[in-house]
Design brief:
By secondary structure, this protein is an alpha+beta fold. 31% of the residues lie in helices and 33% in strands.
């Protein structure tokens, strides 16, 4: 795991890489179909995603628990972006270069919103 990926994942939880297949079997929360939609509609982007799951906590942050969330890191040509699926209500897309997008249960079209943002910014 490179330094940028480690920084995007943060230092509160311990993450392990997982396959797309394992991710789709494990993750059943909000946004669960986003990665499949990316695979179908944006295969060039999908092939540059690496999937992670939290497996423990580091003890560096108070109030942190190991959740059921999912993280995919996109890396291509020096660009690194995190796609985070919060189990209960949020799809977050961001990086350290100022890119930030969130959609969730408050939107009637969260998948379409996320795909549109990904198409324009990746």
């Amino acid at each position: 795991m490179d330094l940028v990926t480690e920084e995007l994942l943060g230092d509160c939880q311990i993450f392990e890489q997982e396959s797309f297949h394992d991710c789709t079997k494990r993750y059943d929360g909000f946004g669960k179909d986003l990665y499949r939609i990316i695979a179908q509609k944006l295969p060039e982007i999908f092939k540059h995603l690496t999937f992670y799951k939290a497996v423990g906590i580091t003890g560096k942050c108070a109030g942190i628990i190991v959740g059921n969330s999912s993280v995919a890191i996109y890396q291509k040509n020096g660009k690194t972006i995190s796609i985070e699926l919060d189990y209960y209500d949020v799809i977050g897309i961001w990086n350290f270069d100022g890119l930030l997008f969130e959609t969730g249960g408050w939107s009637d079209t969260p998948y379409e919103d996320a795909i549109d943002f990904i198409e324009k910014n990746f």
